[in-house]
Q: What sequence folds into this?
């Protein structure tokens, strides 16, 4: 493929990228679920195969102090509180469907120099007795994971990375990820499509999809096995007034190696374009008619 | 004093002179897994001794089974929170910690609440608590702490279940959108796949009055609800759908008012009730659709029941999840 063709293809993909088409969703002539998911899968396949920019955007980068950029622009509808005693900003996204909460702290370094970052992101993750407190709420987590400070730090770091995905690239939380960590992404639509990524490329791709959106992330489940830990996170990417959102399950296998805990692989289940605009009740309560139920034998 | 009275007094005096630990409920810690048998037995004996010594508040006879720091911490804990063994047998396992040590959980104790006139114990305070023993690689007790209160643990688990259910419902909502689009796309392959071969399809037909008859005779012979429910097999339904798709240049389906309900006993079964607006070249209608959906295989969810009714029943209800009893054959 010639350079010009490649450029044209790249431009075409940007124009038809999932976030761009998604933004125009409320208007008329909206592509249907099949088309939108197909476009998303095409974009993901292209990004997964793109090795030219691999890693370029994920080097450790410092965060500019919020003197120059208004945090309110980055977190519309979020609650932003400056805590002078901690020299930090506490940011809380609006609660999603009375269900999901996501908070971030931006801790400002008092000594600014060209060599040191001027701020760092963190998420409110802490041990609370035998449980794990995330955003001030107890979350179900295997007690053996809770007791391991390295694993708890890992959870905090992963959540911080996920929660800052919607920010401009230079504002995202980043840490040296191993490029070789394999990520298998399964996009659920009419059919399930599987796409292989490296972790860096996957985070880049997810950053493109989440850019400018509100990103909710939390711990969904955890399991402690023999020398292996499985952590399942959720990610919900939305924006105020959106007719649909993306929901992802991020399952990370962490194994004990000679050097300590290390991520061995990540499986993603990507459920794109979930519509909630016509939703009357997600958690309806049973209402029995009192009739004798009809017995339906099923084969599995 | 009669001999029998003397004997009773002697017995009472003897009982009163018995050291206090025997007044308490004696317990035994049985470790039945998590490490080799000899190690389990050794740890079980150590913990049995320690648990039974709680009542006296004196752990000195068992100092050898603690690390120096662990002993200090245990003595301090016992000084601040007097407690005694809470059940005759503690059957539990050794849990291997990532740093190479061990943990023993679920040792029930009764905490002495220390209620006084100035310090009333809260009514909700629970004297029964569970201890967690943290052991070194060699099995020495390095720390004793209270496990998370069960009421908190239950809340924590419930929250977790609710969150998992939330994740599942995201899949349902998306599958519903794909399902709706399949009708608009006339995608029979997908519809064939998503309906179970045993699916029960119920179609409600509104019975129209005969216009050629006088008013008082128009409804004669019709059912009270003026709706006739027809049961179809999957094949009948799909064949009918194929004809509709062929006859109509376009089909558009819109869902409003989506309600998702999880089955009380079978966590994979969901009832989805929605108001369906059907538009096509030759026909349009509005009605209530109920889908009984099985998400046991999340990659290939299956519909067991689809019902359509033009309106609610006179009592305001619709066909719902509890009209059906799914019997799974393994």
A:
């Amino acid at each position: 493929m010639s350079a010009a063709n490649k450029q044209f293809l790249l431009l075409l993909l940007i124009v038809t990228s999932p976030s761009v088409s998604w933004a125009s969703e409320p208007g008329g002539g909206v592509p249907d679920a099949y088309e939108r998911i197909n476009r998303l899968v095409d974009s993901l396949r292209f990004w997964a195969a793109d090795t030219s920019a691999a890693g370029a955007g994920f080097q450790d980068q410092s965060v500019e102090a919020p003197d120059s950029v208004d945090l309110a622009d980055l977190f519309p509808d979020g609650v932003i509180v400056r805590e002078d005693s901690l020299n930090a900003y506490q940011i809380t996204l609006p609660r999603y469907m009375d269900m999901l909460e996501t908070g971030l702290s931006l801790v400002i370094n008092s000594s600014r120099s060209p060599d040191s970052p001027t701020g760092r992101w963190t998420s409110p993750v802490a041990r609370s007795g035998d449980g794990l407190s995330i955003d001030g709420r107890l979350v179900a987590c295997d007690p053996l994971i809770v007791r391991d400070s390295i694993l708890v730090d890992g959870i905090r770091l992963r959540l911080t990375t996920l929660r800052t995905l919607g920010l401009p690239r230079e504002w995202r939380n980043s840490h040296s990820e191993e490029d070789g960590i394999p990520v298998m992404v399964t996009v659920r639509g009419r059919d399930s499509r599987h796409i292989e990524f490296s972790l860096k490329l996957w985070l880049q791709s997810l950053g493109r999809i989440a850019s400018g959106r509100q990103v909710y992330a939390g711990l969904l489940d955890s399991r402690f096995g023999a020398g292996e830990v499985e952590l399942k996170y959720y990610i919900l990417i939305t924006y105020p007034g959106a007719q649909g959102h993306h929901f992802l399950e991020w399952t990370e296998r962490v194994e004990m190696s000679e050097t300590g805990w290390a991520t061995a692989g990540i499986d993603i289940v990507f459920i794109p374009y979930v519509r909630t605009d016509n939703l009357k009740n997600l958690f309806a309560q049973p209402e029995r008619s009192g009739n004798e139920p009809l017995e339906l034998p099923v084969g599995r | 004093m009669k001999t029998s009275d003397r004997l009773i007094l002697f017995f009472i005096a003897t009982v009163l002179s018995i050291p206090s630990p025997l007044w308490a409920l004696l317990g035994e810690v049985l470790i039945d897994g998590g490490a080799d048998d000899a190690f389990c037995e050794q740890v079980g004996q150590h913990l049995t001794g320690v648990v039974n010594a709680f009542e006296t508040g004196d752990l000195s006879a068992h100092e050898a089974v603690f690390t120096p720091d662990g002993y200090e911490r245990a003595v301090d804990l016992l000084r601040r929170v007097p407690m005694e063994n809470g059940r005759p047998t503690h059957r539990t396992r050794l849990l291997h910690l990532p740093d190479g040590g061990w943990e023993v959980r679920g040792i029930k104790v009764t905490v002495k609440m220390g209620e006084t006139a100035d310090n009333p114990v809260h009514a909700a305070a629970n004297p029964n608590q569970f201890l967690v023993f943290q052991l070194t690689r060699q099995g020495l007790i390095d720390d004793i702490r209270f496990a998370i209160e069960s009421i908190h643990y239950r809340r924590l688990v419930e929250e977790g279940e609710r969150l998992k259910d939330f994740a599942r419902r995201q899949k349902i909502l998306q599958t519903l959108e794909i399902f709706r689009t399949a009708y608009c796309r006339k995608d029979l392959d997908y519809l064939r796949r998503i309906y179970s071969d045993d699916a029960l399809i119920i179609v409600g037909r509104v019975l129209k009055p005969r216009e050629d008859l006088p008013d008082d005779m128009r409804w004669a012979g019709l059912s009270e609800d003026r709706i006739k429910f027809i049961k179809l097999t999957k094949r009948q339904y799909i064949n009918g759908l194929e004809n509709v798709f062929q006859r109509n240049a376009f089909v558009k389906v819109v869902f409003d008012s989506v309600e998702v309900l999880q089955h009380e006993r079978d966590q994979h079964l969901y009832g989805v009730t929605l108001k369906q607006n059907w538009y096509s070249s030759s026909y349009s209608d509005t009605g209530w659709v109920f889908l009984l959906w099985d998400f046991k295989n999340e990659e290939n969810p299956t519909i067991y029941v689809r019902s359509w009714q033009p309106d609610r029943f006179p009592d305001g209800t619709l066909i719902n999840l509890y009209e059906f009893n799914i019997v799974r054959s393994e």
